[in-house]
C-alpha cells in the first residue's frame, strides 16, 4: 500500500507510582527510548508506551504512611515520573495510568473474555504473599521470604477469584519451543521453561482485603490482582477498550514487538501475561526481553537498602546525555551492570568532553577560522590517510547498525568511538593548523578538514539515539537542514555533507568538568533528595532563599573539635579523612580541603564541627559531621574557621 510504513510497538513495564524513580528504575525507559529513536531513523512507524502502575496494597500503604489518600499519592507521583522522562529526553508516544477510566474498562473486558472461555472460578486462597512485589511466594502457611526483595511474605487467607494458569502449562511450553525468540536472552528463556516445567498452579486474580484497585464486575467486595491489572495496560494504552475489536490504533500496533522488562518480573511477563492473552484469544507479543539489574555497591538499587543513585543530580551537573551514554556504554545490555559515579565522570571527560566534544569543537573551529565558516571543497587526490578515515566510517556504519539491531548498545558505541579516535589520530598526523600556515598547502588543508567534517557528520547521525541533545546541537553547528531525528540511519553514506555548506557557530557541547567537584555536587544534591526539607511534594530545592527562625538555627549543633589525625581519601584529590575530638567522642569527618591543606598541617588544629548531621558517604568513606569553612575567591578556596582565643575542645557554639 502506498505510503504504508512498517510498524514497531515497544513498551517498558509501567512503574509503581509510590515513590521517586532512581537510575535503576529509569534504565529500562532510557533503553526503550534509544530503541525507538533508532527504529524511527530506520523508517519504522514506532509506538512507544510507558506509564505508572497506581493500584495495589503497596500504594495504599505508602499513602497511609504519608497521611494522604492513595489517589493523592498517585496524582503527585505520576507527574514526578513524567518530569523525569522530560529531563532524560524520553520521547514516548503513549503514557498510561492504571487509574484511568478506560483502563478499568480494558481490564474488565479481558476478564469477560477469559471468564466466557471457562478460565475463571471462585475459590479460597491461603498462603504467603509479598505486597511489595505483588508476588505469590508459597501456598504454605509457614514463614517465607520473598525471593525478589527478601522481605518476609505475609500470610493471606481469603476467598478470591482464580485464573486457571495450570491449563496453560502445555500451551506455554509449546510456545517457548516453537518461538525461541519469544523470551530473550536465551538463558532467561531457559529459566522460564524450567519454572513452567516444574508445574503451574492456578493463581488468585482478585483481592477481598484490599480496597485500592479496579472493582471486580458483579462482586464489589473484590478488586483485581494488580498484575492482571498492570499487564493489561499494554493493551489499554493503544485503544483496546474501544469496542469489541479495539480501536484502529490497537489493530494497527498489536501485537507488541518488544516488551522490555527487568529480570525480576520475568515470571509475570513470560508466564502469566501470555496465558492471560491466550485465555482472551488475543495475539501474543513477539518478544519479552528481560535485562539484568543495575547494581550499586554490588547490590540491586533499592530504596529500602538506601543504595540508590538518582537521575536529577547527574542531569543538573553533566546533562542527560552523559547519563544515557554511560549506562549504554558501560553496561552490557541483558546482563547485570554496576553503577559507579567515578566511572560515570571518567566516561564523561574521556569519551564525551575529550572525545566527541573535542573533535566537534576543533574541527568546526578550524573550518570557521581557515575557510570562513564554509565546508571546504576537497582537493583532488585523496591519499591513503584520507581513504583510511572514509573506509573506517563505512565500516562503522555497518557495524553500529548491526549492533543496534541486536541491542548491543555497548558494542555499537565502541565502534563509533573507534571512528572518533581514528579521526583524532588523522588530525594529529595531518596537523591542519600547520598546513594553514603554508598557502601552497591550502588544497590539502581543505581535504583534511573536509574529511574530518564528513566523519563528524557520520558520528553525529549514528550517536543520535543515545545522545539526542548534544548531537542535535552538533547537527546545527554542521549547518545541516531539518531535524537530525528525521535522518535515515539505514541510508547514511559518506559524502552527504556538501562542500560549501555554511556552518553554525561552534560551541562546546560537552565542557570538561572537574571530577572531584562534580562528584561532590552530585552527592550533595542526592543527599537533599534523600532527606528533603519541609517543602511542597516533589520539590527538590526551594524556589527562593528563605530566612529561618532562631528555633531552626538552634537545631544546628556546632562544637569545637581538635583534629587528632588526618589522611587523604584514596582516589580523591580534594578530600581528607579527619579523626576529630569533639569532647568525649572522636568523630570521623571527611572534608574537601586537601587541595589547600596538607594532612600534617591540620593535625592538632582546632576546628568548628557541625555534629548533628546525618552520616553520609563521600567516595565510600563515611563522614559523621561537617567541618565549617569559608569559600573564598572565584575558585571557592576553602579557609577553615577558627578562634583567636584558646577554646576548650567540645565547647558548643551559640
Keyword list:
Rossmann fold, flat, 654 residues, 3 domains, alpha/beta, Isoleucyl-tRNA Synthetase, Domain 1, 18% strand, 7-stranded parallel sheet, 5-stranded antiparallel sheet, OB fold (Dihydrolipoamide Acetyltransferase, E2P)
What's a quick, concise take on this entry?
It is built from 21 helices and 26 strands. A hairpin with a 7-residue loop joins strand 18 and strand 19.
Strand content: 15-25%
- Rounded average pLDDT: 89
Helix content percent band: 40-55%
Low-confidence stretches: 533-546
Superfamily at the CATH H level of the largest domain? HUPs
Under CATH at level 1, the class of the largest domain stands as Alpha Beta
What shape does the CA trace take?
flat
Number of helices: 21
Number of strands: 26
Instruction: Give me the Rg, rounded.
Output: 29 Å
CATH fold assignment of the largest domain? Rossmann fold
Structural class: alpha/beta
> Between the first and last Cα atoms, what is the distance in angstroms?
80 Å
What is the domain tally? 3
> Sheet with the most strands?
7 strands, parallel
Tell me what the CATH architecture of the largest domain is. Answer: 3-Layer(aba) Sandwich
Amino acid at each position: 500500500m502506498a505510503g504504508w510504513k512498517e510498524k514497531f510497538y515497544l513498551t517498558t513495564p509501567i512503574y509503581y507510582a509510590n515513590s521517586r524513580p532512581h537510575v535503576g528504575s529509569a534504565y529500562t525507559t532510557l533503553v526503550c527510548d534509544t530503541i525507538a529513536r533508532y527504529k524511527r531513523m530506520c523508517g519504522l512507524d514506532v509506538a512507544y508506551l510507558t506509564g505508572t502502575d497506581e493500584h495495589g496494597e503497596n500504594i495504599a500503604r505508602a499513602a497511609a504512611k504519608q497521611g494522604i489518600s492513595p489517589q493523592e499519592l498517585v496524582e503527585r507521583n505520576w507527574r514526578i515520573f513524567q518530569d523525569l522522562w522530560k529531563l532524560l529526553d524520553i520521547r514516548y508516544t503513549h503514557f498510561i495510568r492504571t487509574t484511568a477510566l478506560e483502563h478499568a474498562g480494558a481490564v474488565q473486558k479481558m476478564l469477560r473474555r477469559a471468564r466466557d472461555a471457562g478460565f475463571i472460578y471462585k475459590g479460597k486462597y491461603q498462603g504467603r504473599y509479598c505486597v511489595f512485589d505483588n508476588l505469590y511466594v508459597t501456598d504454605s502457611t509457614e514463614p517465607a521470604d520473598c525471593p525478589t526483595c527478601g522481605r518476609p511474605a505475609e500470610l493471606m487467607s481469603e476467598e478470591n477469584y482464580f485464573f486457571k494458569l495450570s491449563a496453560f502449562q502445555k500451551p506455554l511450553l509449546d510456545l517457548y519451543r516453537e518461538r525461541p525468540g519469544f523470551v530473550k536472552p536465551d538463558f532467561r528463556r531457559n529459566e522460564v521453561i524450567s519454572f513452567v516445567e516444574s508445574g503451574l498452579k492456578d493463581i488468585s486474580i482478585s483481592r477481598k482485603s484490599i480496597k485500592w484497585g479496579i472493582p471486580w464486575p458483579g462482586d464489589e467486595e473484590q478488586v483485581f490482582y494488580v498484575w492482571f491489572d498492570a499487564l493489561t495496560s499494554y493493551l489499554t494504552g493503544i485503544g483496546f477498550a474501544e469496542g469489541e475489536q479495539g480501536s484502529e490504533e490497537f489493530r494497527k500496533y498489536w501485537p507488541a514487538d518488544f516488551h522490555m522488562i527487568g529480570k525480576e518480573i520475568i515470571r509475570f511477563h513470560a508466564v502469566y501475561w501470555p496465558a492471560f492473552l491466550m485465555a482472551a484469544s488475543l495475539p501474543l507479543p513477539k518478544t519479552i526481553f528481560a535485562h539484568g539489574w543495575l547494581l550499586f555497591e554490588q547490590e540491586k538499587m533499592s530504596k529500602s537498602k538506601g543504595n540508590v543513585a538518582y537521575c536529577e543530580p547527574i542531569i543538573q551537573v553533566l546533562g542527560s546525555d552523559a547519563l544515557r551514554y554511560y549506562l549504554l556504554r558501560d553496561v552490557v545490555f541483558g546482563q547485570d551492570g554496576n553503577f559507579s559515579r567515578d566511572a560515570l565522570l571518567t566516561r564523561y571527560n574521556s569519551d564525551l568532553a575529550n572525545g566527541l566534544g573535542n573533535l566537534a569543537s576543533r574541527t568546526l573551529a578550524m573550518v570557521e577560522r581557515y575557510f570562513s565558516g564554509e565546508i571546504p571543497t576537497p582537493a583532488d587526490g585523496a591519499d591513503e590517510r584520507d581513504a583510511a578515515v572514509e573506509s573506517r566510517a563505512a565500516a562503522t556504519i555497518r557495524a553500529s547498525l548491526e549492533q543496534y539491531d541486536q541491542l548491543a548498545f555497548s558494542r555499537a558505541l565502541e565502534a563509533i568511538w573507534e571512528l572518533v579516535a581514528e579521526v583524532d589520530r588523522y588530525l594529529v598526523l595531518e596537523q591542519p593548523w600547520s598546513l594553514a600556515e603554508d598557502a601552497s598547502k591550502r588544497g590539502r588543508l581543505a581535504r583534511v578538514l573536509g574529511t574530518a567534517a564528513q566523519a563528524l557528520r557520520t558520528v553525529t547521525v549514528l550517536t543520535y539515539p543515545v545522545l539526542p541533545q548534544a548531537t542535535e546541537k552538533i547537527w546545527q553547528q554542521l549547518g545541516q537542514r531539518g531535524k537530525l531525528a528525521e535522518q535515515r540511519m539505514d541510508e547514511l553514506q559518506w559524502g552527504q555533507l556538501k562542500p560549501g555548506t555554511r556552518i553554525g557557530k561552534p560551541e562546546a557541547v560537552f565542557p570538561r568538568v572537574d571530577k572531584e567537584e562534580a562528584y561532590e555536587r552530585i552527592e550533595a544534591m542526592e543527599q537533599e533528595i534523600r532527606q528533603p526539607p519541609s517543602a511542597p511534594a516533589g520539590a527538590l530545592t526551594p524556589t527562593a532563599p528563605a530566612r529561618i527562625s532562631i528555633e531552626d538555627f538552634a537545631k544546628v549543633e556546632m562544637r569545637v573539635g581538635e583534629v587528632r589525625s588526618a589522611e587523604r581519601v584514596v582516589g580523591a584529590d580534594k578530600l581528607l579523612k579527619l579523626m576529630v575530638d569533639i569532647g568525649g567522642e572522636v568523630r570521623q569527618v571527611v572534608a574537601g580541603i586537601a587541595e589547600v591543606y596538607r594532612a600534617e598541617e591540620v593535625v592538632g588544629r582546632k576546628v568548628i564541627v557541625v555534629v548533628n548531621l546525618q552520616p553520609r558517604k563521600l567516595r565510600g568513606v563515611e563522614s559523621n559531621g561537617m567541618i565549617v569553612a569559608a569559600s573564598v575567591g572565584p575558585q571557592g578556596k576553602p579557609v577553615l574557621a577558627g578562634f583567636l582565643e584558646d577554646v576548650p575542645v567540645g565547647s558548643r557554639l551559640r
